[in-house]
Design goal:
Chain A is α/β, with parallel strands linked by helices. Chain A is built from 15 helices and 28 strands. By secondary structure, chain B is an alpha/beta fold. The chains are: A alpha/beta, B alpha/beta. The structure holds guanosine-5'-diphosphate. Guanosine-5'-diphosphate binds at residues 51, 53-59, 91, 93, 108, 130, 182-183, 185-186, 219-221 of chain A.
């Protein structure tokens, strides 16, 4: 992958140490036969060390730091000293316990960041704790790791946490793992015991789809088979822990997949005459070049990349996975945070409002059927509702329980989620990064998961009944918005026609009805008097008990917000369709400026649904809304 | 925009290197912060770390810095620091805000006045000043670019997102930080109960009365910082370099409590060489800071209460 660069002779140079107190790999490499050049030691590999509490993770980390010469000078002595003063026996584990209260509790509580270095590369240890309460920290560590060590106590065997951690590693997508069987001294360092153990373990791991690169017998406290080969267990011929780590591959970033970039923001900073409108985000996979045709999902909007932007360097001609990018567009289209940028000639993502997922739950409050949560996937953020729990996996036995209505803390489950608005994603089997999401409950990230597949949007019962749907409307303002040709007027007339007589009186305000009475403003950029007058009129009608359906051109989001502020029950329904469809419907390719609503109550793509289906979805939403409020 | 020269893209192959990796992650975090917090501020201590952070903001926002930079002026900062602050503020057209604990200064409740010990002094002039400046209870002074001087800021809204240049390798308690770390109204930091962070998703939701600290530099080391300063040619305060007296500052603070270290490194390259091979390799960076030594857990308790 890297060109081998000629390096100066290091034979006589003394060992140099960097800021982290670590020797430079170039120096070490000179001692190692076949050592690699500096060019290959650029990035660091993040690893996690997981396992049941007290099985020896911290001891192993402490030993690895000490044995690779990765500790700052005097640190070991300092801790030994402190132990002597406090009359505590010295533990290698103390090296990690930088925090006072952590020492007091005696358990590692967070994914701390510790570095060590081998001749091959630098490692960042995301020290994952074993205490069951602190599973979320393990998730934090493991989600960023490229490889994992699973630590077990030879005397105690496979514990609940071991199973859970192994399963989570598999679900979080950590595929490179090695098992470290610690405390071999406690079982007499015998080969027969180890072999039996390794067989059991191998069977369990492969049942959940993990194939360990090695199962290594070690004595953490003495350092046997960590950095150096064990003299007492000379029967073991496999790799040491360091050897297995060095053999892992740094996966790098997924530049070869299809282009995916969740839009973080669209920037327009007008200071100093800067008139660039820059779409910004971090690329999850693939590459992007100037001139590429990009498609944003779920809006379906598309245009070409005009330029790639950067500060304090020559603008790049290509950007790829792992990079935080920014680009301008050939055409002024309104895109916003939450959309997924993709390339027109590559496989598209999936867009859906109902999904089947695998979820791990970390919240203190259970995940319950019928309740609403916020789902964050990429930069999209939508309100979801847990429709159904298909099965919950018992973490220790991995048996499936099927009749549950809640998922408890530390459980893993398969669930169906219903989304308030469509989001774009990939299936976990197709592209890991854009299949991952988290669930927020009560201001905190309480669970995570991957999307397995999209499900049919509306339950079939509804689509069959769509054509005959009727609903009683309540007093309120139904504000339909969308670009020209999106289908506002058609939907408005459909809703008015299907409104049930038992509900509120319906008033329809659309461009046809209003005609020249409320003239639309002519000058571009001028506030639309028509929108303001209609907003006021609608709020008055609502106050008198009418259900007002508004279907006029209202491209300005501020104006619509003002309308919302005046009404009591305001429901903003956003209609959209791909640019080609709009052009076909309006007979014009000229696109008018249109600001997409920030938080519409409902968003519908009218190119994918019949008018009956669109109408039925609005009714279904209104139904749910009335039952909730 | 300022007259910074363009550096050509690194001549390496397409692969992103270690500094790029750090830069991209930090930029991502800055943009997430900007998208999530309408009342966002960045702390700027004038030191190398927060100046790198400021530079990263210009990267993230394509030359702009769309948030105020908050500086806590203890009144004991080395004068060059303040000059440098105001020079960059004017050159890069930054929104700079400073705040201080005027009551404690007036009552002489400071260590240099001989009335309190070092830690209490830090508590008064930094922690308390910061808390009040962020919450809006304390006066905020904003640099007025037209007048070329500081005026009292009319915005008294509490900042709900605060970007801080802490690094995990600085000392023990910082290695437990999160990129997005919620703090209660009293600035308290509940170490054992932090929300998890994974898959580029962070604690951007927050309850009323709380705020979130954002740490885009968490993964950087002191060496990374200097190598990045060199690569990007970021202007830094001259105090970091030996001016011919055989000493320089490695970490900048208040003059009564920060000592220069013996060193003849005169520029960024020489500092990098010194860090890699010289005698600092195994000496903690904050060794020149006296308050760290007053008690074993000093920095951690200050941190819980909100000191950076
Ligand atoms: N006999 C023996 N004890 C060990 C070994 N490794 C660790 N221990 C002890 O096991 C206990 C738990 O170790 P620690 O590293 O704190 O476990 P953690 O909770 O997984 O981080 C400590 O008392 C260690 O001294 C080993 O190889 N042999």
């Amino acid at each position: 992958m890297n060109a081998v660069t000629g390096s100066a002779s290091t034979a006589t140079r003394p060992l140099r140490l960097d800021e982290e107190g670590l020797p430079f790999p170039e120096d070490l490499a000179s001692n190692a036969p076949g050592g690699e050049s500096a060019a290959e030691v650029e990035a660091r590999m993040g690893i996690v060390i997981v396992g049941h509490v007290d099985h020896g993770k911290s001891t192993i980390i402490g030993r690895l730091l000490a044995d690779t010469g990765s500790l700052p000078e005097g640190k070991l002595e300092q801790i030994k000293d402190l132990c002597a003063r406090t009359a505590k026996p010295f533990e290698y584990a103390f090296l990690l316990d930088a925090l006072k209260d952590e020492r007091a509790q005696g358990i590692t509580i967070d994914a701390a960041r510790v570095f060590f270095r081998t001749p091959k590369r630098r490692y960042l240890i995301l020290d994952a704790p074993g205490h069951v309460e602190f599973l979320k920290n393990m998730v934090t560590g493991a989600a960023r790791a490229e490889a994992a060590l699973l630590v077990l106590d030879a005397g105690e065997g496979i514990q609940e946490n071991t199973r859970r951690h192994a399963y989570l590693l598999s679900m979080l997508g950590v595929r490179q793992i090695a098992v470290v069987v610690n405390k071999m001294d406690l079982v007499g360092s015998r080969q027969e015991d180890f072999d039996a153990f390794a067989r059991d373990l191998g069977g369990f791991l492969s049942s959940i789809g993990l194939e360990p690169a090695a199962i290594i017998p070690v004595i953490g406290r003495e350092g046997d088979n960590l950095a150096t080969r064990s003299a007492t267990m000379s029967w073991y011929t496999g790799p040491t822990v360091l050897e297995v780590l060095d053999a892992f591959r740094s996966q790098g970033e997924a530049v070869d997949g299809p282009f995916r970039m969740p839009v973080q923001a669209v920037f327009k900073f007008t200071n100093d005459g800067d008139d660039r409108r820059i779409v910004a985000g971090t690329i999850d996979s693939g590459r992007l070049r100037v001139g590429d045709e990009v498609v944003f999902h779920p809006s379906g909007k598309r245009t070409r990349v005009k330029s790639l932007e950067a500060f304090n360097r020559v603008a790049p001609s290509i950007v790829g996975a792992g990079e935080s990018a920014g680009f301008t567009l050939a055409q002024q289209i309104y895109v916003q945070r939450g959309e997924l940028a993709t390339l027109a000639h590559e496989p598209p993502p999936v867009t859906a409002t109902r999904i089947r997922t695998s979820i791990f739950w970390l919240g203190t409050r259970p995940l319950e059927v019928g309740r609403s949560y916020t789902l964050k996937l990429g930069t999209a953020r939508v309100s979801v509702h847990l429709e159904h729990i298909e099965r919950v996996l018992d973490a220790s036995t991995l048996d499936a329980v099927t009749d549950r209505t809640a998922v408890l803390r530390n459980e893993v489950a398969e669930c169906v989620l219903k989304l308030r608005q469509p989001i774009a994603f990939d299936r976990a089997a197709d592209l890991a990064a854009t299949s991952r999401f988290v669930l927020v409950d009560n201001f905190s990230i309480s669970g995570g998961g991957v999307v397995r597949e999209a499900l049919v949007a509306a339950p079939t019962r509804e689509s069959v009944a769509a054509a005959n749907a009727h609903a009683a409307l309540r007093a309120g303002v139904l504000w339909l918005t969308g670009p020209k040709g999106a289908g506002k007027s058609a939907l408005a007339r459909w809703l008015a026609a299907h409104a049930d007589a038992s509900g509120a009186k319906v008033e329809l305000l659309d461009d046809d009805t209003l005609g020249e009475l409320f003239p639309a403003s002519s000058a571009r950029g001028e506030p639309s008097l028509r929108v303001r007058r209609v907003a006021w009129l609608a709020s008055r009608l609502e106050a008198h008990g009418a259900a007002v359906i508004v279907a006029i051109d209202s491209p300005d989001d501020d104006e619509r917000r003002a309308a919302r502020a005046q009404a009591t029950n305001f429901v903003e329904i956003q209609l959209h369709a791909p640019a080609e469809v709009l052009a076909q419907r309006t007979g014009s390719t000229e696109s008018q400026p249109y600001e997409v609503p920030v938080q519409p109550e409902l968003t519908l793509d009218t190119s994918r649904l019949t008018l009956d289906e669109t109408g039925a979805q609005v009714f279904a939403w209104l139904d749910e809304w009335s039952s909730q409020s | 925009m300022s007259a910074t020269t363009l550096t050509a893209p690194p001549s390496r192959a397409s692969r992103i290197d270690h500094l790029d990796q750090l830069e991209h992650r930090s930029v991502h975090l800055l943009r997430e912060a900007y998208a999530s917090f309408p009342q966002l501020a960045m702390l700027w201590s004038i030191g190398k770390d927060s100046t790198v952070l400021l530079w990263l903001a210009r990267k993230a926002f394509f030359g702009h810095v769309p948030m105020p930079l908050v500086h806590i002026d203890t009144s004991y900062k080395i004068p060059e620091m303040i000059q440098y602050r105001d020079r960059l503020a004017a050159e890069w057209r930054l929104t700079v805000i400073y705040g201080q604990n005027e009551e404690a200064l007036a009552a002489k409740q400071t260590f240099p006045d001989g009335n309190v010990d070092r830690l209490t002094c830090c508590g008064n002039l930094k922690t308390e000043a910061l808390r009040r400046t962020l919450s809006g209870e304390g006066k905020r002074y904003r640099f007025d670019h037209k007048l070329g001087k500081y005026v009292v800021d009319t915005n008294k809204e509490p900042y709900t997102g605060v970007i801080v240049g802490a690094r995990a390798d600085e000392e023990g308690s910082r290695s437990k930080e999160r990129y997005f770390s919620p703090r209660s109204g009293e600035n308290n930091w509940n170490i054992a109960d932090q929300p998890p962070e994974f898959w580029n998703q962070y604690a951007t939701e927050f309850a009323p009365g709380t705020h979130v600290r954002i740490h885009p530099l968490l993964d950087w080391t002191e060496l990374d910082i200097w190598e990045y300063i060199e690569r990007e040619r970021i202007p830094t305060v001259a105090l970091y370099y030996d001016q011919g007296k055989g000493e320089r500052y490695r970490s900048l603070g208040c003059w009564p409590c920060t000592k220069a270290v013996t060193s003849d490194a005169r520029n960024v390259q020489e500092i990098i060489v010194e860090l890699k091979s010289g005698r600092f390799a195994n000496i903690a960076e904050r060794s020149g800071r006296a308050q760290d030594k007053d008690d074993g857990g000093g920095l951690e308790s200050l941190r819980r209460e909100g000191y950076m």
